[in-house]
Predict the 3D structure of the following.
Amino acid sequence: MHRRTVALVLLAGLVALSGCAGLTDSSPTDTTSNVDADADAVQADTLDAMTTVTSYEFSADLQQDLGNVQTDIDLTGVVNTTAERMYQKSDATATRGDQSTSATTKSYIANDTAYIHSQGVWQTRPAPERTWTNTPVDRQVQFLTGAEVTVLNKTTVDGVETYALSVQPDPERVAGYIENQSSVGGDATVDSVSVTQYVAVDTHRIRKATLDMSATIQGQTIDQTLTITFSEYGTETDITVPDEATN
């Protein structure tokens, strides 16, 4: 794997803003091997189909191991880029030795303003740059663009028939992707990235993706695993910022 020193973003940026019910069991089922599908065609059709996506829901699990601290974050969210609205709820647990700390955060973004509720307090701040072109779906599209793609098999995710794609992202895109996130500071060497995407056979929209990344920062190894699922493409959304957030 190509290695490059980049500004490390750990790591919630890999998921970012996320509504709705909790994580569901979306493990692939009914797998069929030896699929007669052209990887380049599936890749092109998927990139084309994802350009029309404007609204969707997603859920994600992000696990991160820094050696002395392990973090597990569950997120659920809804995105509407046309209305420029997002909602996310995150439940995070950080564990060091035999001690754990948990926190729940709710976030809304409306146009260029973010409203964040944590520890009983609302905060208002500018939305991150490129919010509406850097949503979770956009990030998966970035990985797929210019990647080397192999069709692994055909499988079912949440009742949807999908192609399972092994995606080897363009190293420059991986580096650029990380550099564009909110930096935590310090230089990191990204040692490896492995991505699998599950693309609906009928619509060519991404239904699920997994990502494994390993990096080092100041001599410390950081391992991260992300599983994210997408649903309800194109449905109407009602993302309303609570009155108490704006008062």
